[in-house]
């Protein structure tokens, strides 16, 4: 069991370093859909950690490490991101509750978790910025309009396309991280309950 926690700490630290440096920079530039990029990397590390340790709750435990590092180095301004990380981690666990979820189950969990990042502004902007749900809608649609080259009047269509883009990104991140995890297991990163023959 101790080996599992070490493995979770390793991947949580790797994600935390990426989140703290790259994520903070992207948030500072006020770039749209930072959550799409950052959570895709998060899914990558969380899926690998789950495949190797086979522990229920591994996604949340990895997230605890990330949140600790984020708050340590960035401080209270990271609360909105911290909440997003925890919610997405819980969504992962709800989908792949089995100790040994299939590759498809992991991929679907990744898709769902990254999709949440699209709608997180509806929670974070009213709570942390004092803005309205309309402001959140305007930010999402405005960012999508720039990204897709569509008029802002096509709000529902923009949201639909963005939702598909988020789902595909999360699915692909989890799908390919599964193969990476298999390679790492071959190199000796196996759970504490498993012994090499």
Molecular structure report:
- The model has no long low-confidence stretch (mean pLDDT 88).
- With 197 residues, the chain is mainly α.
- It contains eight helices and no strands.
- It has one domain.
- Helix 3 packs antiparallel against helix 4.
Terminal CA distance: 19 Å
The tally of helices reads: 8
Shape designation = globular
- The proportion of residues in beta strands is under 5%
Output the keywords.
197 residues, mainly alpha, globular
Quick rundown:
With 197 residues, the protein is mostly helical.
Task: Give the topology.
Blueprint: H1 2-28, H2 34-53, H3 58-73, H4 79-95, H5 103-119, H6 121-128, H7 133-148, H8 155-186
């Amino acid at each position: 069991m101790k080996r599992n926690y070490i493995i979770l700490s390793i991947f949580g630290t790797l994600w935390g370093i990426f989140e703290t440096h790259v994520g903070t920079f992207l948030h500072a530039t006020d770039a749209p859909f930072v959550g799409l990029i950052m959570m895709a990397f998060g899914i990558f590390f969380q899926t690998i950690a789950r495949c190797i340790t086979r522990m229920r709750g591994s996604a949340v435990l990895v997230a605890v490490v990330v949140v600790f590092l984020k708050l340590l180095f960035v401080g209270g301004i990271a609360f909105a991101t911290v909440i997003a990380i925890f919610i997405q981690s819980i969504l992962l666990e709800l989908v792949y509750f089995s100790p040994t979820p299939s590759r498809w189950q992991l991929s679907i969990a990744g898709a769902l978790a990254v999709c949440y990042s699209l709608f997180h502004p509806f929670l974070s902007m009213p709570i942390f910025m004092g803005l309205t749900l309309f402001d959140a809608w305007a930010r999402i649609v405005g960012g999508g309009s720039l990204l897709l080259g569509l008029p802002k009047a096509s709000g529902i269509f923009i949201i639909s396309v963005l939702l598909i883009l988020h789902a595909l990104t999360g699915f692909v991140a989890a799908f390919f991280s599964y193969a990476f995890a298999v390679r790492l297991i071959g190199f000796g990163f196996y759970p504490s309950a498993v012994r090499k023959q």
